[in-house]
């Protein structure tokens, strides 16, 4: 039942991955790596438009996320369908992520940093924390969720976990040649961009990525806290 890929990106909402890791995803797929997205919530509350229902918004955001993933060359997008602002650190949610990790057997898992301080969306914190727990120790141990063994899902050891939006950045990824794809993917999220103070993200994002690359031998970067797991 397993289908090994190189990278699994686990995100709380549609568009989070495009802000956090899209330039790096585009570089990976250009290199021939297979990337799968897992979107935990439907993003059904993040709007200032009072004329739209949660159901309609969720439908729009799903289409937008699929379009963005296509721009980046992402192999597949999995939607878990939890309500926006409703993620909880539960055994059921953790087990879903363990199942996905064991199915796709990624070398690298990328998610939002759960330890960012103060102002941070709760879904981002919960998604990051539950992903980290799913990677270690639950995906590794055969006695964790033994019923998954009955489904043919053997334990899997992830090699690395990368956190975007980290305050403790220890790795900068060169996105100089893929920044345009990052912007193109972000533009797919029309329902979100329309609500920004500046609906054109290219200018301020390029400046952010330029600052992230300071001291490196490339122009634009995405920053991460990268953990190499020694088994």
Characterise the protein shown here.
By secondary structure, this protein is α/β, with parallel strands linked by helices. A seven-stranded mixed sheet has the order 3-2-1-4-5-7-6, with helices on both faces. The radius of gyration is 17 Å and the shape is globular. The two termini are 24 Å apart.
CATH topology, what is it called? Answer: Rossmann fold
Query: Terminal Cα separation, in Å?
Result: 24 Å
Helix content: 40-55%
Q: Count helical runs.
A: 9
For the CA atoms, what is the radius of gyration? 17 Å
Poorly predicted ranges: none
- List how many beta strands DSSP finds: 7
Count of discrete structural domains: 1
- Which CATH-level-2 architecture? 3-Layer(aba) Sandwich
Shape: globular
Q: What do the pLDDT scores average to?
A: 95
Strand content: 15-25%
Order of helices and strands: EHHEHEHEHHEEHHHE
Structural class: alpha/beta
Largest sheet: 7 strands, mixed
Name of the CATH homologous superfamily = LmbE-like
What's the CATH first level? Alpha Beta
In spatial order, strands of the major sheet run 3-2-1-4-5-7-6
For this entry, give a set of tags.
alpha/beta, Rossmann fold, seven-stranded mixed sheet, 9 helices, globular
Short account of what is shown:
The chain is of the alpha/beta class and 231 residues long. The chain has nine helices and seven strands.
